[in-house]
């Protein structure tokens, strides 16, 4: 299937899964490949995504009931008119029922199919039964009308409730692929919060990784660089689920980008 545009959505109800954390790596990966993207922030309790990318991310007040449907209608009308190859929607916790209801009532997935737009659900499995039931409901609703990327977060899920489950197998049968979030030290995470407080705004991971920007000390910026490179390799491997068909990076392009990202050894023969 030839896909002209992609919409990324993380619709899970449970909070504190690392959804905004993962989105930072994904946007940095898109920037690295030179793929234009826009975003929508539905986390009206924090607006972390919009604060870090104010030029390309618009905030929405999701609300409840009819308010949420109106907000999502506005969002998807804008997204479907958008010309950017990728649109990323970051949602707040406890919003999955509101989102799936709006997708169904507004027939969003049908319209996407008509326009060659493919949606990707980013799913974050955890060790509790409620979360598994939530994942199951999302899968039963969307079926093969969307693609799936399973984001494993070792910092949040240490058991095997999802691993080896029938749900995991069914998702894999539908083409789902898994990526694993790197574990970043609490020291670096706290330093990021402090840096954002000092800057008076949100800071993208791309900004934080640049030592010359001075937001983080060298060792901490280095950890973000390491984490970004680890995620970039995984995104490259699942690119067919994240970007439109014509934007899937070729092997030569990926190899070139990796080479550019690596410091080159310099020989000093003296005078």
Q: Strands, helices and their partners?
A:
Elements: E1 5-9, H1 19-33, E2 37-42, H2 48-52, E3 57-59, H3 65-81, E4 86-91, H4 96-105, H5 108-115, E5 117-123, H6 129-142, E6 147-152, H7 166-173, E7 177-180, H8 186-199, H9 205-209, H10 218-237, H11 251-261
Parallel strand pairs: 1-4, 1-5, 2-3, 2-4, 5-6, 6-7
Helix pairs in contact: 1-10, 3-4
Question: Overview of this structure, please?
Answer:
This protein starts with a strand and ends in a 10-residue tail after the last helix. It contains 11 helices and 7 strands. The protein has a domain at 5-183: P-loop containing nucleotide triphosphate hydrolases (Rossmann fold), CATH 3.40.50.300. The protein has a 7-stranded parallel sheet with strand order 3-2-4-1-5-6-7, sandwiched between helices. The chain is globular, with a radius of gyration of 19 Å. By secondary structure, it is an alpha/beta fold. The model is unreliable at 263-271 (pLDDT under 50). Helix 1 (19-33) crosses helix 10 (218-237) and helix 3 (65-81) packs across helix 4.
């Amino acid at each position: 299937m030839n896909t002209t545009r992609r919409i990324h959505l993380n619709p899970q109800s449970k909070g504190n899964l690392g959804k905004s954390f993962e989105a930072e790596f994904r946007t940095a990966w898109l920037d690295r490949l030179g793929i234009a993207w826009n975003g929508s922030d539905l986390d009206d309790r924090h607006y972390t995504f919009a604060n870090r990318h104010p030029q390309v991310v618009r905030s929405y007040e999701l609300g409840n009931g009819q308010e949420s449907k109106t907000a999502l209608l506005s969002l998807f009308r804008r997204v479907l008119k958008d010309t950017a190859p990728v649109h990323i929607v970051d949602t707040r916790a406890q919003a999955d029922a509101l989102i799936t209801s709006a997708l169904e009532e507004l027939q969003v997935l049908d319209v996407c199919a008509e326009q060659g737009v493919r949606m990707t659900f980013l799913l974050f499995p955890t060790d509790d039964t409620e979360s598994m039931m939530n994942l199951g409901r999302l899968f039963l609703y969307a079926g093969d009308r969307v693609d799936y990327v399973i984001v494993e977060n070792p910092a949040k899920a240490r058991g095997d409730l999802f691993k080896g489950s029938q749900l995991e197998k069914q998702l894999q049968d539908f083409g789902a692929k898994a990526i694993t979030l790197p574990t970043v030290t609490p020291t670096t995470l706290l330093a990021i919060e402090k840096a954002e407080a000092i800057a008076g705004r949100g800071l993208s991971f791309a900004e934080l990784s640049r030592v010359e920007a001075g937001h983080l000390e060298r060792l901490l910026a280095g950890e973000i660089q390491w984490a970004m490179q680890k995620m970039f390799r995984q995104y490259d491997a699942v690119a067919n689920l994240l970007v439109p068909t014509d934007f899937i990076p070729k092997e030569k392009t990926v190899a070139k980008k990796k080479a550019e990202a690596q410091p080159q050894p310099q020989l000093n023969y003296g005078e």
